């Protein structure tokens, strides 16, 4: 910003020069000493006005250059230059605004990368069962197919379609939670009733594997939350435990209530969780080295989102005697 290119400054200089010339000429008509004194006084007034104005415009020029540097990647700022005054306040506010804009731009870039990765993961998860479905359909189209073989293929086809349906449904639930469109009910939930509902979908698969499910609850434990959504979260945890528990194993769900929280501990007799998988266990699409075949890696992520949205916590670990352990806590107040 050039000081003398400003029309306001040029206009002020011309007005001041005309005023000074007229005033000095009028004073000189009376006495040349009055004219000289008037000229000196006018020059002093002009200096008192234009020197601070020049400094203010120079500060604005530096501020403009600083904003340009911030917007193009520089985040450095010399705090020693800050001082009391309107210009310093303006400088501070503009700096904060530009930094906030840069943060938003970086967040948008991260969101784009995350979206691209998520789409790739979703495509991979859906493509796998679709490929299997295509193969099954080709087998079913063969002539002279035995009835027993046909029944087996139809059952496999139903399982693959069910997997796709579950995958799409879970992804839709995750997207609703991300968008904040889910409204959780806030009613008293009986833990034993909730555990019974969550166990129903896994009872038959567990029976086929020879696994046992033990529910330890007095029937008096309660918490305030959403029954349907919490049932969904616990069902996903039970399903995960079932997939990692060997045949003949046992899964235990134990509830207890304290004045501070209601706790549900779900454990299994499997091989447990690898230590390097624990930090990323609840990440979407994360599959550890010992992940079950066909696992999409989103069930536990959905479970944690559901619990945390209800002011609860969900942690994973390993039992001292072996096996995985998931601890859910619903607090009676926000902690």
From TrEMBL:
Pfam families: HATPase_c, HisKA. It catalyses: ATP + protein L-histidine = ADP + protein N-phospho-L-histidine. Its EC number is 2.7.13.3. The keyword DNA repair does not apply. GO terms for cellular component: plasma membrane. Residues 121-334 form the Histidine kinase domain. Gene3D superfamilies: 1.10.287.130, Histidine kinase-like ATPase, C-terminal domain. GO terms for molecular function: phosphoprotein phosphatase activity; phosphorelay sensor kinase activity. One of its GO terms (biological process) is cellular response to phosphate starvation. It is found in: Membrane. SUPFAM superfamilies: ATPase domain of HSP90 chaperone/DNA topoisomerase II/histidine kinase, Homodimeric domain of signal transducing histidine kinase. Signal peptide: none annotated. Its main location: membrane. Keywords: Kinase, Phosphoprotein, Transferase, Two-component regulatory system. PANTHER family: PHOSPHATE REGULON SENSOR PROTEIN PHOR. This is histidine kinase. It comes from Cuneatibacter caecimuris.
């Amino acid at each position: 910003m050039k000081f003398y290119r400003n029309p306001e400054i040029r206009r002020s200089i011309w007005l001041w020069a005309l005023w000074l010339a007229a005033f000095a000429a009028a004073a000189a008509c009376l006495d040349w000493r009055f004219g000289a004194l008037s000229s000196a006084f006018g020059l002093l007034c002009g200096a008192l006005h234009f020197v601070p104005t020049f400094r203010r415009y120079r500060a604005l020029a530096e501020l403009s250059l600083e904003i340009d540097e911030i917007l193009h990647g520089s985040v450095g700022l010399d705090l020693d230059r800050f001082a009391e005054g309107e210009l310093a306040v303006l400088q501070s506010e503009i700096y904060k605004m530009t930094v906030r804009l840069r943060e938003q731009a970086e967040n948008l870039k991260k969101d784009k990368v995350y979206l691209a990765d998520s789409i790739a993961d979703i495509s991979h998860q859906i493509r796998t069962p679709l490929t299997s479905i295509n193969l099954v359909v080709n087998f079913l189209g063969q002539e002279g197919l035995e009835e027993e073989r046909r029944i087996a293929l139809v059952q496999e086809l139903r399982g693959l379609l069910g997997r796709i349906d579950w995958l799409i449904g879970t992804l839709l639930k995750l997207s609703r939670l991300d968008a904040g469109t889910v409204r959780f009910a806030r009613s008293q939930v009986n833990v034993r009733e909730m555990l019974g509902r969550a166990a129903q979908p896994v009872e038959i698969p567990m029976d086929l594997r020879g696994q046992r499910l033990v529910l330890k609850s007095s029937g008096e434990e309660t918490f305030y939350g959403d029954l349907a959504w919490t049932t969904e979260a616990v069902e996903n945890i039970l399903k995960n435990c079932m997939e990692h528990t060997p045949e003949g194993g046992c899964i235990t769900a134990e509830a207890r209530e304290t004045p501070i929280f209601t706790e549900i501990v779900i454990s299994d007799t499997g091989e447990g969780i690898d230590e390097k998988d624990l930090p990323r266990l609840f990440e979407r699409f994360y599959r550890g080295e010992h992940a079950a075949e066909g696992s999409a890696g989103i069930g536990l992520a959905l479970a944690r989102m559901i619990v945390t949205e209800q002011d609860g916590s969900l942690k994973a670990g390993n039992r001292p005697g072996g096996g995985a352990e998931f601890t859910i806590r619903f607090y009676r107040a926000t902690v």
